[in-house]
Design goal:
The complex is a heterodimer of chains A (442) and B (437). Chain A is α+β, with helices and mostly antiparallel strands and 442 residues long. Chain A is built from 15 helices and eleven strands. Chain A has a six-stranded mixed β-sheet, sandwiched between helices. Chain A has a five-stranded mixed β-sheet with strand order 7-11-8-10-9, with helices on both faces. Mean pLDDT of chain A is 92; it is low at 1-26. Chain B is of the alpha+beta class and 437 residues long. In chain B, 41% of the residues lie in helices and 18% in strands. Chain B has helices at 65-72, 84-91, 116-128, 134-153, 156-168, 182-185, 190-200, 216-227, 278-289, 295-303, 336-352, 357-373, 378-391, 397-405, 409-419; strands spanning 24-27, 33-38, 44-51, 95-100, 105-112, 206-212, 250-256, 263-270, 307-313, 322-330, 425-432. In chain B, the strands form two sheets. Chain B has a six-stranded mixed β-sheet, with helices on both faces. Chain B has a five-stranded mixed β-sheet with strand order 7-11-8-10-9, with helices on both faces. In chain B, β4 (95-100) and β5 form a beta hairpin. In chain B, α10 (295-303) crosses α11 (336-352). Chain B is globular, with a radius of gyration of 22 Å. Chain B starts with 23 loop residues before the first strand and ends in a 5-residue tail after the last strand. The chains are: A alpha+beta (442), B alpha+beta (437). At the A-B interface, α2, α4, α10, β10 and α12 of A face α1, α2, β4, α4 and α10 of B.
Chain lengths: 442, 437
């Protein structure tokens, strides 16, 4: 038994929603796409090698749609989907899916909610029945709302002991002031306490709609089977009369902010962040390559300078986090309280160097080769394939995105990197969050 | 799940072919064990080199050696200088990493199948030609210390797991943390790393597994060519320590000023896969902790609402007998004593009432489905082959699901009574520091 994985790196990787999720390309078509009569986009990738199927229904009902004064509403709504429907209690749902060795999960993020089913092929019908039920007929029973609010409150309390959670929350506030991206997906202890069942019901009615839904299916199922099965359960789902919600884009140039937070820690956690661009912007691919050179792996500049040469960090990385309503470039590192200021200075120095010195050909080559060559690893499981399809659709990209990705990365030149570095990588433009030990506590 | 107490359940992430897979197996003259499996779903392969050495092979005063050496394996050889290994892997689109456990140290590269030979050449090189430059050792020491701060010093669950193990074992090396004590990491010298490397990094102590879009017979010939000339080494020294039979409950309390919610861990001394009781213990772990319908979640999180989350783990494949873990994090306002009692109540219930057929079936189906899902990536297939091979033979995989499926309600009750006994138990309690909310 592997008692505890001791990875060499990557502790904060989860905090960086890397652009890699939309990696490079395969020659064969990734999936079939069609729009069902009542609005949902259906994406099907046939993978017959194993008798398993993953289905994710993605809706744009994420925390970006939280009403003013109600941070956490989208998250609470999503968390309650599997806590009971018109026909089954929460424990009944749990037993139904787990009895066949499957799973059914609903999770909110900034941009959406995913309801994900993972099941053996022979239980696909049961699984899809449950998916349709939790999407369309959640009960939102008052006692379950109360129970879930308390659980979320407890999880928020625990998040206070995790330095990366504390730092992520502060950075979101800094990068997205006044925008829904600025508050945590789960809300705050205070906001969650105030949420009501009526708000949940209204949010569900307004934002869980077929004309906003993406249904991605991958596994041992044919296109015809998938279409029939999805239509049978979601085909009669009518869109509400109300118009779809609109959310403003985040400010392109928010004020730069710095915050130092103190906790009982021997090691400081640092997040640096600055506005960036989404996949549809011409600067996206050069910036992706720049970020790869900066902190994308164990030959990157940050890794080399901070870890290999100075032994200041175990974990350091950079990545792009493109969202529907705004994008960021993030750098994350951890270093002990005594050395963290040096580490931050060196990280800022690397940003500056990328801006001021031309990239050498070998460095550029490694970054491009890695981004292109590692593509198949981003589709190496059924679950990853479904997430990729959802990501492509949600970003408004086409199913040839893998090919586009490969071509566009290959075309990035040192001059392109220099151009985007000048524009996006000025250290003075990065907000800085440091969560460190109390002064004197070491 | 954030809990470090509950560690990745091997068999959930694990793969087992429903029918015997066409594994090409060989043992080279120098003792290198090789398992190759063709899987042509995607043009990629997972190359994994496992050494039968972990924190179990260390001594007091030099804990953390195995893990420290894992870090040094990326620091170069005369043929491939510092950083070259990762550089070659990345410029070929591969992803590499490594991990150390109590029993093994593994290095893996997931990469385009056409680049597998490049990786094999690098692995063959670093099996015997590591530089281990003392200056690099000193630099990497700081990195390992940072890693320890992340995982143990500043992570309440990690800190609790460490203290609990240190109390639960008194003679066996499972009592110290894989990463080692900070005091030892500070003192490890290049000479100690060299001696450890020479003792354990030998073909006769290694297992090479490749799963992916490969031509297995042809690749076996390349493996012979690349590794065949490496001389067999002396057999590594055996671990002689045996944990004495536990003779009473042990308890430990850890205070962490940074923690917000109390955590309770219970650990019971149990046998490993060599015991006829192992399948029942594995099923028991599933029944207690796999999913929201499982007993711990249902009782502690949903019904009694005393816990924020719960977890459980049975280290089926550990090389020596180890600990069955249960843990729970308190909801605000609930005490460790309440949590401990709630966990104990669930264990008592297992001893008194036979579990229902419905529950047994659910756990059996979860076990079986977990096996199928574990075959979804070449990486998971390779890891699973390696873990079972290290238990004795990859062929043990074929027996796992049938054995777990055969477990009866009477078996579960008997095993719960035999092992969830107070004198086998260690209780660990994590408390936020006094005065903190």
């Amino acid at each position: 038994m592997i008692a505890a994985r001791r990875l060499r790196r990557g502790a904060l990787a989860a905090a960086l929603v890397c652009a890699g999720a939309l990696g490079a390309g395969a020659a064969a078509p990734l999936a079939h796409r069609e729009v069902l009569p009542n609005g949902p986009v259906l994406l099907v990738a046939e993978r017959a090698a194993l008798p398993i199927v993953v289905v994710t229904v993605w809706l744009r009902a994420g925390s970006a749609l939280d009403p003013t004064g109600a941070p956490g509403l989208a998250n609470l709504t999503a968390a309650l989907l599997t806590r009971g429907t018109a026909r089954r209690s929460g424990p009944d749902l749990d037993r139904a899916i787990e009895s066949v060795g499957g799973s059914l999960e609903a999770d909110a993020s900034r941009d959406g909610v995913s309801v994900s089913l993972a099941v053996l092929r022979k239980h696909l019908d049961l699984g899809l029945d449950l998916v349709a039920e939790v999407l369309r007929a959640p009960a939102f029973a008052p006692e379950e709302v109360e129970r879930k609010r308390r659980e979320i409150g407890a999880a928020l309390e625990r998040a206070e002991e995790e330095p990366e959670s504390v730092a992520s929350r502060a950075l979101a506030e800094a990068l997205f002031p006044g925008h829904p991206y600025g508050h945590p997906v789960a809300g705050t202890a205070e906001s969650v306490r105030r949420l009501t069942r009526e708000q949940v019901v209204a949010f569900h009615r307004a934002h869980y709609r077929p004309d906003d839904a993406v249904v991605a299916v991958a596994g041992d199922v044919t296109l015809a089977e998938a279409r029939r099965a999805v239509l049978a359960r979601l085909g009669a789902w009518a869109p509400p009369a109300a118009p779809r919600a609109s959310v403003p884009m985040a400010a392109a140039r928010p004020p730069v902010a710095s915050r130092a937070l103190e906790r009982e820690l021997t090691q400081a956690t640092v997040l640096l962040g600055a506005p960036a661009v989404r996949q549809d912007h011409p600067d996206y691919f050069p910036l992706l390559v720049a970020s790869q050179v900066l902190g994308g792996g164990s030959v990157s500049r940050l890794y080399t300078a901070l870890r290999e040469e100075r032994g200041l960090v175990y974990s350091v990385s950079s990545g792009l986090s493109p969202g529907r309503y705004g994008a960021s470039l993030l750098i994350a590192l951890q270093s002990r309280n005594e050395t963290v200021d040096v580490a931050i200075r060196l990280a800022r120095g690397e940003l500056d160097r990328l801006r001021k010195e031309p990239l050498d050909a070998a460095e550029l080559d490694i970054a491009r080769s890695y981004l292109i060559g590692s593509f198949p690893l981003r589709l190496d499981t059924t679950g990853k394939t479904v997430r990729f399809l959802i990501g492509v659709e949600d970003a408004g990209l086409d199913l040839d995105y893998p090919d586009v990705f490969r071509q566009r990365v290959a075309q990035v030149t040192a001059a392109d990197v220099a151009r985007v570095a000048a524009r996006y990588l000025d250290p003075a433009g990065f907000s800085t969050i440091v969560v460190r030990g109390r002064t004197g506590a070491g | 799940m954030r809990v470090a107490l509950a560690v990745a359940a091997l068999l959930l992430a694990a793969a087992a072919p429903a029918v015997p897979a066409p594994v090409v197996e060989a043992t080279l003259d120098n003792g290198l064990r090789v398992l190759l499996l063709e899987d042509h779903r995607s043009p990629i392969a997972s190359v994994q080199m496992w050494y039968r050495v972990g924190s179990r092979d260390e001594r007091p005063g030099a804990t953390g050696l195995a893990h420290f050496l894992e870090h040094m394996m990326f620091k170069g050889t005369p043929a491939h200088g510092k950083g070259m290994f990762s550089r070659l892997v990345e410029e070929n689109g591969g992803q590499d990493n490594a991990f150390t456990s109590q029993d093994a140290t593994a290095y893996y590269v997931d990469i385009a199948a056409e680049r597998v030979e490049l990786v094999l050449a690098l692995e063959a090189d670093r099996m015997r030609h590591l530089l281990l430059d003392p200056r690099e050792v000193d630099s990497e020491r700081q990195v390992v210390m940072e890693e320890r701060r992340t995982r143990s010093e500043d992570d309440p669950d990690g800190a609790l797991a460490e203290e609990l193990s240190a109390v639960a074992f008194k003679a066996h090396p499972y009592r110290w943390p894989i990463i080692g004590w900070m005091e030892d990491i500070q003192r490890i010298e290049a000479g100690q790393l060299r001696a450890f490397y020479d003792a354990y990094y030998r073909p006769n102590n290694a297992l090479l597994v490749v799963v992916g879009d490969i031509d297995a017979p042809a690749l076996l010939e390349r493996v012979r060519a690349l590794f065949g000339a490496i001389p067999r080494g002396p057999e590594p020294p055996p671990v002689l320590a045996v944990e004495p039979r536990p003779n009473g409950e042990r308890r430990v309390t850890v205070r962490k000023p940074g923690a917000r919610l109390p955590v309770v861990g219970l650990a019971y001394h149990v046998p490993n896969h060599r015991s006829p009781d192992a399948p029942a213990l594995a099923l028991l772990a599933t029944l207690l902790s796999e999913g929201r319908a499982a007993r711990l979640h249902r009782a502690l999180v949903y019904e009694r609402q005393v816990a924020l989350d719960t977890s459980g783990d049975y280290p089926y494949s550990s090389r020596d007998p180890s600990l069955f873990w249960l843990s729970a994090t308190a909801q605000p306002g609930h005490t460790p004593a309440e949590l401990e009692q709630a966990l104990l109540d669930e264990l008592e219930r297992l001893k008194v009432e036979p579990v229902s057929e419905e529950e047994l079936d659910r756990a059996r189906n979860q076990t079986e489905a977990g096996f199928v899902w574990g075959q979804d990536s070449v990486h998971a297939r390779a890891s699973t082959l390696a873990r079972f091979e290290l238990m004795g033979s990859w062929r043990l995989l074929e027996r796992y699901v049938p054995e777990v499926r055969a477990v009866t309600a009477a078996d579960v009750q008997r095993v719960a009574r035999a092992y969830f006994a107070a004198d086998r138990r260690t209780v660990g309690i994590l408390l936020p520091a006094a005065g903190e909310p």
